[in-house]
Amino acid sequence: MVNALASIITEGCMFGIMVLGVFITFRVLKFPDLTVDGSFPLGAAIMTSFIVSGYNPVLAIFIAFLAGLLAGMVTAVMHNELKIPNLLAGILTMIMLYSINLKILGASNVSLLNKKTILGNVFLFLKQFGLSREVSYALFFLLLIFFIKFLLDLFFRTDLGMTLGALGDNQQMVISQGVNPKVIKIIGVGLSNGLVAIAGSFNAQYQGFGDVGFGQGIIIAGLAAVMIGEFLIKSNKIFWLTFNVILGSIIFNAVMYGARTLTFVLPFITASDLKLVQVILVISCLVAIRIRSNLRKRSSKSGKP
Amino acid sequence: MVNLEHVNMIFNQGTLDENHAIKKINLTIHESDFITIIGSNGAGKTTLFNLIAGSFRPTSGKIFINKHDVTRVPEHKRARYIGRIFQNPLLGTASNMSIEDNMMMCYDKGFKWPLIRLSKKMRSFFKAELSKLNMNLEERMKENVRMLSGGQRQALTLLMMVMSKPTLILLDEHTAALDPKNAALVLSMTNDFIEENKLTTIMITHNMSQAIEFGNRLLMMDEGEIILDVQGKVKRKLTIEKLVKKFHEIRKHDFESDEIRLA
Fold first, then answer.
1. How many Å apart are CA A208 and CA A22, to the nearest integer?
2. Helices within chain A (DSSP H only)
């Protein structure tokens, strides 16, 4: 039970870093960005090849962040300068990244067995205090995501962060303040994919291998988590908004954990059905949001609060 | 201070939908002018604003601000010295952000760096500024702008625009979407701010009495041309009847009475 909870928290927080990125594009910038499916394995590929070649994995996190940043910027520049619709621009970068990731990784799947990773070191350190592997990972990722959340919250209180927030809401206002909205989009989409790549780099360590297929459909997981989070705490404060995202990610991973357990119990559900479960979850969230907003409209029309 | 030289704007040039929205306009705006513009729908008033602000590039002609040729300067760069308020109160503020965040963003123009400038000192400055509006907004600085009424949002936009000290302000029927009481309030506030800060202003209005009452210069536009340009003494002596008569003299066709309210 403790192990189950710990692995839910571990995955919730690890993917949560990615979900924070998705939150920035989809919710703050209102720029639906599918680059995520490519920048997640990009982070994983960079981490894997760094560790395999004997480089410092902490350095690999920074490189992964920068590479993700660059990938996001490519999407934004394509959208800005070539006037490619944002969804398509993201898909194009994602496809490009598939080839690039294969180049970085050298094969479609590279093992990290018996290699020194950050997560491995964390466990070695916490083992002295009698913690199990699952619990030490959970603790590490909880600390990590709240550290990233702290930095993000700080960023969104700066002038640049506020302008990013305003752009998704009112592009004209950003222009009226003498700011080029294209530059803000490049920064926002870049930052988002940088975070996604960091999540990918930890996923490779957690799984024990790097795989070019890691990112497939990951955007759906991100979206589901963001939307679940929106049903939680109502606030306009960035602190609670990012908190909701993390909580949403943990809840989403709990549901997926449940679905995975079901595959052992029920003969007609297999592991390959999990993507179906994810999509059904996203669709039900969308329907729930729609029903809720309809109810609100009706109640405001009849004059009730 | 602002010069337009032979400015033409043709939309969909060479197609069946060709629309010559601005026809060879020459206009000089002097420092601390307060110009009101009237004209029926489709006269080209908003297009003129879009050209001055840089939302469009003119088909031909040149635009100068302080003797600099800004014809090819993008809108966000011109926005550093032009303040603009739209008819739609939603366009001036970010609705899912608090009043103080909105004010911080509009405090000055130009690129926003990753610095936290919203301090105690800033807050008390914003509080003092907000109290000028007499709308009790200074007690609601942490509330989302979404919770404000259209009139309050437009007043806030006006306050923030004055705060950034623009060289030229463009008011595009900024009170038309408000109820009469709020419209009058925002308008008198606008006038006070303009007089107090000696701001160079152009204001589009659909209301002839407003156009006569405010400002030192009046332009009348029709079919992409400026057909009347009066200032000073002549403007002060204008009445609605005289204005309508003048229009008939120039245009020899009926004023669209449903478009211009003879109020």
1. 25
2. 2-22, 36-52, 57-81, 86-105, 118-127, 133-157, 159-169, 171-176, 181-207, 218-229, 238-265, 274-301
Distance from CA of B158 to the nearest CA of A (A): 13
- Kindly identify which residue of chain A lies nearest to residue B90, measuring between CA atoms: A170
User: Residue range B108-126: average pLDDT?
Assistant: 89
Percent of chain B with pLDDT over 90: 43
Whether B232 and chain A come into contact, CB under 8 Å, resolves to no
Mean pLDDT, chain A, as a whole number? 91
> Of A159, A173, A175, which is closest to B75 when you measure between CB atoms?
A175
Query: Residue A137: is it exposed, middle or buried by C-beta count within 10 angstroms (0-12/13-18/19+)?
Result: buried
pLDDT-derived band at A222 (thresholds 50, 70, 90) equals very high
Structure tokens at A269: 């559900």
Instruction: List chain B residues with CB under 8 Å of A158.
Output: 112-117
Q: Are A166 and A173 in contact (CB under 8 A)?
A: yes
DSSP B145: G
**Which contacts of B147-152 are long-range, i.e. CB under 8 A and separated by 24 or more positions?**
B148/B99, B149/B182, B150/B89, B150/B177, B150/B178, B150/B182, B151/B89, B151/B178, B151/B179, B151/B181, B151/B182, B151/B183, B151/B185, B151/B186
Q: What CA–CA distance (Å, rounded) separates B84 from A176?
A: 7
Q: Identify which of A26, A98, A34, A38 has the alpha carbon closest to the alpha carbon of residue A68.
A: A38
Distance CA A290, CA A19 (A): 22
Residues A246-261 have a mean pLDDT of 90
> Which pLDDT value is given to residue B258?
47
With beta carbons under 8 A apart, name residues in chain A contacting B84: 176
Residues forming beta bridges with residue A109, ordered by sequence position = A211
pLDDT greater than 70 at residue B256? no
Taking the CA atoms of residue A210, residue A214, residue A219 and residue A223 in that order, the dihedral angle to the nearest 10 degrees is -80
What distance in Å separates the CA atoms of residue A85 and residue B157, rounded to the nearest whole number? 31
How far is the C-alpha of A172 from the C-alpha of B91, rounded, in Å? 6
**Three-point CA angle B212, B217, B223, nearest 5°:** 85
Put simply, whether B144 touches A (Cβ < 8 Å) is: yes
* A305: confidence class by pLDDT, cuts 50, 70, 90: very low
Question: pLDDT of B139-151, one tens digit each?
Answer: 999 999 999 998 9
**What separation in angstroms does the CA of B100 have from each of A264, B8, B148?**
54, 41, 13
| Cβ atoms of residues A212 and A52 within 8 Å | no
Tokens of A118: 């950050």
Q: How far apart are CA A37 and CA A75, in angstroms?
A: 13
Alpha-carbon distance B248 to B251, whole Å? 5
B-interface mutation test, from A155, A170, A176, most B Cβ less than 10 A away? A176
Give Cα separations from A274 to A217, A264, B45 (angstroms): 11, 13, 58
Cα nearest neighbour of B101 on chain A: A162
Domains of chain B in start order, with CATH, are 1-81+166-263 (3.40.50.300), 94-164 (no CATH)
Alpha carbons A183 and A170: distance in angstroms, whole number: 15
The pLDDT of residue A113: 87
